[in-house]
Amino acid sequence: xxxxxxxxxxxxxxxxxxxxxxxxxxxxxxxxxxxxxxxxxxxxxxxxxxxxxxxxxxxxxxxxxxxxxxxxxxxxxxxxxxxxxxxxxxxxxxxxxxxxxxxxxxxxxxxxxxxxxxxxxxxxxxxxxxxxxxxxxxxxxxxxxxxxxxxxxxxxxxxxxxxxxxxxxxxxxxxxxxxxxxxxxxxxxxxxxxxxxxxxxxxxxxxxxxxxxxxxxxxxxxxxxxxxxxxxxxxxxxxxxxxxxxxxxxxxxxxxxxxxxxxxxxxxxxxxxxxxxxxxxxxxxxxxxxxxxxxxxxxxxxxxxxxxxxxxxxxxxxxxxxxxxxxxxxxxxxxxxxxxxxxxxxxxxx
Amino acid sequence: xxxxxxxxxxxxxxxxxxxxxxxxxxxxxxxxxxxxxxxxxxxxxxxxxxxxxxxxxxxxxxxxxxxxxxxxxxxxxxxxxxxxxxxxxxxxxxxxxxxxxxxxxxxxxxxxxxxxxxxxxxxxxxxxxxxxxxxxxxxxxxxxxxxxxxxxxxxxxxxxxxxxxxxxxxxxxxxxxxxxxxxxxxxxxxxxxxxxxxxxxxxxxxxxxxxxxxxxxxxxxxxxxxxxxxxxxxxxxxxxxxxxxxxxxxxxxxxxxxxxxxxxxxxxxxxxxxxxxxxxxxxxxxxxxxxxxxxxxxxxxxxxxxxxxxxxxxxxxxxxxxxxxxxxxxxxxxxxxxxxxxxxxxxxxx
Lengths: 350, 350
Fold this sequence. Notes:
The structure is a homodimer. Chain A has helices at residues 11-24, 72-88, 109-126, 177-194, 206-213, 219-228, 242-253, 268-276, 281-287, 303-307, and strands at 34-36, 43-45, 51-60, 93-103, 129-137, 143-152, 168-171, 234-238, 255-260, 293-298, 313-320, 325-328, 334-336. By secondary structure, chain A is an alpha+beta fold. In chain A, the strands form 3 sheets. Chain A has a 7-stranded mixed beta sheet, with helices on both faces. In chain A, a hairpin with a 6-residue loop joins strand 1 and strand 2. At the A-B interface, helix 1, strand 2, strand 3, helix 2 and strand 4 of A face helix 1, strand 2, strand 3, helix 2 and strand 4 of B.
């Protein structure tokens, strides 16, 4: 399940600048706004009009990813996608990224080439330019920092703090699958560690594993909004699970939410795998994270604009803050949704 | 020599979002171009005119800094400064930064408050806004990623690849001191580790230690250039030592350089300390790094514009590439300057 390396070039053979040059030599700038890319103290961008949007993420080996089951190419792709997802969640268009890496000597040049191939594939698919970064050694593991820049029209940017009572709560796609994909990969890793001769059993799990290893940002949804003339009233990307994102929107907007369990999209594979794992599918959707779908709210007057869009699920309604953040279960019960998030903090030591 | 903590609040007590809110609650946005700061998927900036410049740096505990002798407040300050230095090196003005942290459970909330106090002090002094970031746990040590954004006039941005034969090579301040400060701190650390009762002997070393722990970016030099109507022909900040930066400018501009040892500014304290350490002062200046002065080239016709500026040293001349990159020593010898840089890569393991 790890990356195959037929050739191994030590990083020291190239040196820092040789390495950067080697890894970035195929980069071609696509945007007129990318004036100067890799190779100076700073990249130079030209945003003549509109607003500039910037987002940044830090990914740390052992916390955010496990290289025993994550191919480096997929990791490069995902590192870009998680950042672009934040730009789309502003209803903006990403244009450039910077990428900084902390690399231990465990990695060969070929391994980094695979990582960059994934970065490049994401840059190509999402039409963004890699314009700069920093490369350093790390004393343990791989550290990835991506900053994305984008542009949007001032009157079309969508924030988290602007949901209003009566707005409809919408989701762009199914939730919980990425989390379940991770559980499958973790299970197979444990089996492999206890008996390296057992082959991983990933049969029929392509969808869930794909959602974990190669997520996509909803560029297409933002494009569909523009085509339909829709500007959501509030929006956030679902990186930490639906409940956590609901808490952000409700907390910042000073409102509550009433969510129908039956309105939360869950893929049949996720449904089945959750049950296999003895988990409640809705809990996976609420707390799982890493689906990178968009959670957004719309004025009910705009319902015709979303109704015919593919992959848009109406999951509930914005309520007064005093009503809290509630889930109406399929069984007819109503209970409080709990805030999740930053599960990472609990599991580390110094 | 480490930070005193009278109170200790575990990170888990606040949670991720509580922590970010706690650490960023005193941030006030200064720039009209800072439309939206911390608290959404992305920061929103408005650069109506000019070019946007972006730079990013990754700092890793154990590689770039040692907390046994680096106060967290100084580290916060320096983390910002090293990034702003890249923006000034484009002859641009920094306006915003994003800050991402990977934090192990070793750190208390109070420790992070100290770090942020340093970040805030740098933001205040350099008049930049902290507009976003990402906070995560790390499994070992502190990881800091800063991205700086700034603006500059298209016709005044200064690149690395535009030095011309005959240009004068200039430096904004003395070199080698930060490296020697680091050597003093490392020596005292080793003494302390072998006998914790021995007090560190830092007497009379304020200048060198200050250059290491609290460097400044040369905002004032950029302002002086503007006032004098000077636009350098090429520029880079000196983060990896003069030789490394000369190689960048010469390599990218397709030129050579002839540097006079007598023209390379070295502080008397650095001079003396180098000799105490049995090091050649000019070697410290060429290879030491972390001084964050600016190396720039000017058209000789502009010499009157720099001649009366304080702290500008003319160190040599740009030559044809075929002449190589040479140092003319005080002893009258001429020898090749060696490229340095990425010393970091050699000293790590997996």
